[in-house]
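pasting for the record
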Amino acid sequence: MTETATLTVTATANGSKHTLPETPSKVEPTFTAPYGPNVHVSKHPILAHKLSILRSSSTSPSSFRSSLREITFHLGYEATSTLTTKEIPLTVPATNHTDHVESTGQKLKDKVALIPILRSGLGMVDSMLDLVANAQVHHIGMYRSKSLMPVQYYNRLPKKCDVDVAYILDPLIATSATIISVAGMLKKWGVSKIHVVSVIASKQGLTELLHIHPDVHVTLGHVDDELTADGNVMPGLGDAGDRLFGTASVMEDEEELVHPSKRKRTMSMDSGSGH
């Protein structure tokens, strides 16, 4: 919905009148209409600036890590706005430094769990802990097979669920198959409220996630239009895990499980060429 600004008329020193727009009474909604109210896409200009740094191929791993932390803090601040609080008594020091004034404060009521998806989700944990210091952190390791299906290799969810809200952390939502799988695990574990925090999502992946889990909330920095046949978001931000930790892509040939010292020498090595 677009707000129409009201107009005000002001008089100048020479008696002429100018019509000036007033500040809109409401802030433009930040969710993207096609996806409904459970999806929040930030329109903050600082985040857009930081997102450009994160995307850039010239950004170093160090700058990538710091940018991801800053973006996560911004998105996490918005994502946690629906947490509930309870009143608590407290005292405030008076200006004379000896007396104290009785007052009432607020304390988070919800028990929160952070669920980073390994390994790129690790880069989002510290910022979320800055916001919710007492949150539990449970790691889930997933990788995408050549068929684009998620494969779980690590799961540290405890047997008993004692949290009210779980925040799934993953910088990029491509096909959304991984997020869909993790959300299903959390529901089976017993979490009643699930919130995904991600920097970028593909339009197709986001639509599929909401189709399978319409009750899940999502907070994003941006939605990219294109998803390639091999499951890459365009323009996306590259391999978030590799860029976060400064690692090269894992080998995909038959020597992947062979010790480096036992692998065949490449033609460049045999010819004695350098880097």
